[in-house]
Amino acid sequence: MKRIAIAFLVFLLCVSVASASSSETAIEAVSSGSNGDIGILSLGYTITQGDSNWHYKPITTSVTRFNIDLNWGDKTDSLKLYVYDPSNNLVGYYYDSADGKINGRINIDIVDYSGIEQGTWSICVYGYSVSGTEDYSI
Ligand SMILES: [Ca+2]
Ligand SMILES: [Ca+2]
User: Fold this and answer.
1) Domains and CATH numbers, the chain
2) What is the 76 CA–ligand 2 centroid distance (Å)?
3) Which of 9, 12, 68, 81 fits 94 for a cystine, CB–CB 3.0-4.6 Å?
């Protein structure tokens, strides 16, 4: 029962920001050309319509950008990505088109020229429009 309550809370947290606007800060997401250093644990995950899966990325060094590469490889399904800084502020949310291509992948760099906030960044993958079960890596 407790697990269900937590899962529901996470769902609410994810959905509640759906209507929020993108951040007013200097942080921006830019299309990334890199295929290399993904940074986040890159394993096979699955998601269904309306699901929220959370992933965490620790930033422990002084950097001005890091890459997020969410890849589900099926442009007929649509996943959505929410990015929160270590203070749990929503930095932005992104659709497949965020990197300029509808290709079943969201490959972006989070950029802050004054320095990426160190700590644990939280990334929520949301099943925005998914038929059946979709596999993805991040
Ligand atoms: Ca894309
Ligand atoms: Ca699919």
Assistant:
1) 2-136 (2.60.120.380)
2) 7
3) 81
